[in-house]
Design brief:
about 100 residues; 3-stranded antiparallel sheet; 2 helices; 6 strands
């Protein structure tokens, strides 16, 4: 399991490494372009939903327990589309690498 550290003082969100790696690529791409985005995460145990506003001025750190996984380009594109939508970035189920949605 990895951790997304957000803000100062940092709030920590535990997310599996594979998902976190894909989120990192999407978030950093947006921040590189000086774009802000909303990110919503739901705790699988409690179903509590939290949303944060991530801007280029925000401190964001990604911490992993494992090496960088292979990236699923279809999933990455779906996450980018979510990040660019009015609903913002959220964790979507990973599609099979060969599938086309």
């Amino acid at each position: 399991m990895g951790t997304l550290h957000y803000g100062s003082p940092a709030a920590a969100y535990t997310i599996d490494d594979r998902t976190l790696a894909h989120l990192e690529l999407v978030i950093f791409a947006k921040l590189r372009r000086q774009e802000s985005l909303s990110f919503a995460v739901t705790d699988e145990t409690t179903q509590q939903r939290q949303a944060v506003w991530i801007s280029p001025a925000t401190t964001v750190r990604f911490e992993y327990d494992a090496p960088m996984p292979e990236i699923n380009k279809i999933w990455l594109q779906e996450l980018v589309e979510a990040a660019n939508s009015p609903g913002g970035l959220r964790i979507l189920p990973e599609p099979e690498p060969g599938s086309s949605r």
